[in-house]
Amino acid sequence: MSPVLPHPTDLTHLQYAGWNCVWCNASLRNGGVSVGFSRGGVAAYDLDVEVYACGPKCPEAPGVEA
């Protein structure tokens, strides 16, 4: 079971744009992996966006043992 992704309104601008890790907010300058879609909206606006993580062993990812 994959972890629940944050709501789009809880993401920073750089996370929403796909430039930073959705979990630890680290830069993805050297690449990242897609972890799914953050789904949600505000009123009539659909804010669904694909989000990325720095890797499967991101220290802040839910369910990952450090």
Question: What does it look like?
Answer:
This protein is mainly β and 66 residues long. The protein has one domain (1-66). The protein has one helix at residues 13-16; strands at residues 33-38, 41-42, 45-46, 49-53. Strands 1-4 form a two-stranded antiparallel ribbon. It has a two-stranded antiparallel sheet with strand order 2-3. The chain is globular and about 35 Å long.
Per-chain topology:
Layout (H helix, E strand, L loop, with lengths): L12 H4 L16 E6 L2 E2 L2 E2 L2 E5 L13
Antiparallel strand pairs: 1-4, 2-3
Summary tags:
66 residues; mainly beta; 1 helix; two-stranded antiparallel sheet
In short:
Helices cover 6% and strands 23% of the residues.
Mean pLDDT figure: 90
Order of helices and strands: HEEEE
Task: Please give the count of helices.
Answer: 1
Structural class by secondary-structure content: mainly beta
Largest beta-sheet characterization: 2 strands, antiparallel
Give the amount of beta strand, in percent: 15-25%
Q: Helical percent range? A: under 10%
Through-space gap between termini: 19 Å
The dominant shape is globular
**Mind telling me the C-alpha Rg?**
12 Å
- Low-confidence parts lasting 5 or more residues at pLDDT below 50? none
- If strands are numbered along the chain, what order do they take across the biggest sheet? 1-4
